[in-house]
């Protein structure tokens, strides 16, 4: 995997919006989306980040200082580092600089790589093409399962359930969000999620991609078009 060279990262987009998913849904957040993802999910909504080695003109490599400056200018209290798959890079210089500037650091990752950096919040969204490491499931503050078919919920529980020390949110278990895959939104997936939440009420939460309903990312001209 390639490394960030001397305090720079290849950035696909950096924009100000609100967190559209998970426990921080609706909170103002600055998004830093790195380029490069070896996972290649069929329904990826950021496939533009896949151009790991090919860098069209629109793709920028930014320094940590530039990135922190942009977050500060925006006024956002937190920065969501996402991708692509951001953990293919050493995120320690960026996260340290953000935290020193008083900005909280949140991570969106598939969990398949070592996490290098200091994060206030870790979201692991596991992907079958490259399943997560046990230690990352244990580090996660929340787990986001993209429900892309009728067996997705039980298949993922079989895969990661034993990695969780407890499955009861009252005992400090991470929230496990069930989020409908955008192209499959419809009654069957919604019903499957509703039934799972009712059957396992301490384990699951029903999720949504609120930013797609609002199209809020597009309000910032520095955001790239969302697919799906
Ligand atoms: N507004 C907004 N919220 C998000 N939460 C997770 C996102 C992601 O692409 O990782 C995302 C995103 O792309 N936009
Ligand atoms: S892990 Fe995320 S960025 Fe990578 S292909 Fe899958 S959905 Fe897209
Ligand atoms: Mg997205």
UniProtKB/TrEMBL annotation:
Gene Ontology molecular function, alphabetical: 4 iron, 4 sulfur cluster binding; carbon-nitrogen lyase activity; magnesium ion binding; S-adenosyl-L-methionine binding
Family affiliation: Belongs to the radical SAM superfamily. 7-carboxy-7-deazaguanine synthase family.
Catalytic activity: 6-carboxy-5,6,7,8-tetrahydropterin + H(+) = 7-carboxy-7-carbaguanine + NH4(+)
Binding residues annotated for Mg(2+), in chain numbering: 46
SUPFAM superfamilies tied to this protein: Radical SAM enzymes
Lineage: Bacteria, Pseudomonadati, Bacteroidota, Bacteroidia, Bacteroidales
Native source species: Acetobacteroides hydrogenigenes
Physiological role: Catalyzes the complex heterocyclic radical-mediated conversion of 6-carboxy-5,6,7,8-tetrahydropterin (CPH4) to 7-carboxy-7-deazaguanine (CDG), a step common to the biosynthetic pathways of all 7-deazapurine-containing compounds.
Gene symbol of the encoding locus: queE
InterPro entries the record matches: 7-CO-7-deazaguanine_synth-like (IPR024924), Aldolase_TIM (IPR013785), rSAM (IPR007197), rSAM_sf (IPR058240)
Keyword annotations of the record: 4Fe-4S, Iron, Iron-sulfur, Lyase, Magnesium, Metal-binding, Queuosine biosynthesis, S-adenosyl-L-methionine
Pfam family for this entry, one: Radical_SAM
Pathways per UniProt: Purine metabolism; 7-cyano-7-deazaguanine biosynthesis
Domain Radical SAM core: start-end pairs: 24-217
Protein name: 7-carboxy-7-deazaguanine synthase
Obligatory cofactor(s): [4Fe-4S] cluster; S-adenosyl-L-methionine; Mg(2+)
Entry keyword annotation includes Lyase: yes
């Amino acid at each position: 995997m390639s490394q960030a060279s001397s305090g720079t990262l290849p950035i696909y987009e950096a924009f100000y919006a609100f967190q559209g998913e998970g426990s921080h849904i609706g909170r103002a957040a600055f998004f830093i989306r790195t380029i490069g993802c070896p996972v290649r999910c069929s329904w990826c909504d950021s496939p533009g980040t896949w151009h790991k080695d090919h860098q069209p003109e629109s793709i920028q490599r930014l320094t940590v200082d530039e990135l922190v400056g942009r977050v500060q200018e925006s006024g956002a209290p937190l920065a969501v580092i996402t991708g692509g798959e951001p953990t293919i890079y050493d995120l320690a210089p960026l996260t340290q600089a953000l935290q020193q500037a008083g900005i909280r650091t949140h991570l969106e990752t598939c969990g398949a790589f070592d996490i290098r950096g200091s994060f206030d919040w870790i979201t692991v969204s596991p992907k079958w093409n490259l399943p997560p490491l046990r230690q990352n499931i244990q580090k996660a503050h929340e787990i986001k399962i993209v429900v892309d078919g009728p067996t997705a919920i039980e298949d993922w529980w079989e895969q990661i359930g034993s990695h969780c020390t407890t499955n009861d949110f009252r005992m400090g278990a991470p929230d496990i969000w069930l989020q409908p895959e955008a192209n499959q939104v419809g009654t069957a997936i919604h019903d499957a999620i509703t039934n799972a939440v009712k059957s396992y009420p301490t384990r699951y939460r029903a999720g949504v991609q609120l930013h797609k309903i609002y199209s809020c990312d597009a309000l910032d001209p520095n955001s790239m078009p969302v697919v799906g």
